[in-house]
Amino acid sequence: MTRITDIPTSRTANFIRFQRDPLGFLVDALPLGDVVSLRTSSFRPTYIINSPDFVQEILVHQEQGFRKGRSSDVLRRTIGDGLLTSENSVHRHQKKALMPVFYKERIMAYAEVVEEETKKLADSLEEGTPIPMHEAMMQLTLGIVARSLFKTELDSRKAELAAAVDVTIRETAGTIFSPLILPFGIPTPGHVKHKRAIRTLEAMIYEAIAKARANPEHYSDSMLGLLLDTQDESGQALNDREIRDQMMTMLLAGHETTANALVWAWYCLERTPDAAARLRAEQDELREEEQRTGKSQPAYEKYRRMVYAKQAVQETLRLYPPAWAILRESERELTMLGDRFPKNSSFLISPYAIHRKEGVFGDAYAFRPERFDEGVSQWARFAYFPFGGGSRGCIGSQFALLEAGLILGSLAGRFEFSSVPGQGEGKPEPLVSLRVKNGRWMVPRRRR
């Protein structure tokens, strides 16, 4: 018996609804079935995937039968042929080469950078003075990525570079889901702005590459140093453009997503006082122990003991996963779990929607970090998957969890944040990753 269900609404109505409210459209499709056909062209049919076992088929068991397709083509305008956009053997080679960047000993060193940069931000906050939390988190994570992966200090350039990232994200998102993709060479106002932003980011990247080539010993323990020693599939050393593509990938994918998740975390904590109190209590306990013993623990050890901070991050990623949609296209006709799908079928997988399955999570729309007390193994493998899965799962997922957990815990230990009145409820903005629409202004109050 087939598990494919036809959506009852027309193609035109579906298109208009998705363009206006893609998240609402995907959530409303949840009760329709495990696989929902949008009744598009028979030559290029489109399906929404709502079942964890079908997600596992696409991302793991039969991943070689799929390509990223349209999303990669658009992202390639900004990041080139980096880990996020490469396919098949090239992707496997790149991922293998970059894996050492995220080994445990490297992440332990990155934790110190996260703690130092977070302390700088905390020291700069003024009691009662509103801050644009979205900009603060964006600049913080940008500085962390630059220092930890590229061994580069951004200092006064953070705001300029963060603004350039914002432009690339908005222009890319506007293109991925557009019915018509204009060639990048056509000088539309959006393309001109997008290319200017890319040049701003490239200036920093190529400067860092030049410094690393001139003094490789200094960069030997960084991602940049690793890239200098990496060879392509033919055994040749990477050229500057190839290194640039990997750095651009990490720059965009490695900080914008974490920054957005953190803004959502502050928003959720403000609206869940019990969770915020438990987070602060955990930090108080860690601080009191350090005062009692007279010993300051390494940042990584602190993170290991921030159990509730990590759970708060995991719950934020459940409700507001940065990668709100995953797109795949079949390269050949496939049979999955008894159903056949033609070549060139498109599949839309939404962690945002699947994470809201009431039958799986219970009280699914509530922010309850304690639901992770028993870990993620209590659910089906792809009932919760904020970092994707399979060979294309996020290579930096452990770093992202550590970074977000340390930032959240460290700042919550020193401040309480409340939204500036008049902003209303936070609304998700589904760009390349999931943002709080219009950002969020918040007021820091120092804890006594």
Automatic annotation (TrEMBL):
Heme binds at C394. It comes from the Bacteria. Pfam families: p450. The keyword rRNA-binding does not apply. Keywords: Heme, Iron, Metal-binding, Monooxygenase, Oxidoreductase. Its cofactor is heme. One of its GO terms (molecular function) is monooxygenase activity. Belongs to the cytochrome P450 family. This is Cytochrome P450. It comes from Cohnella lupini. The lineage of its organism: Bacteria, Bacillati, Bacillota, Bacilli, Bacillales.
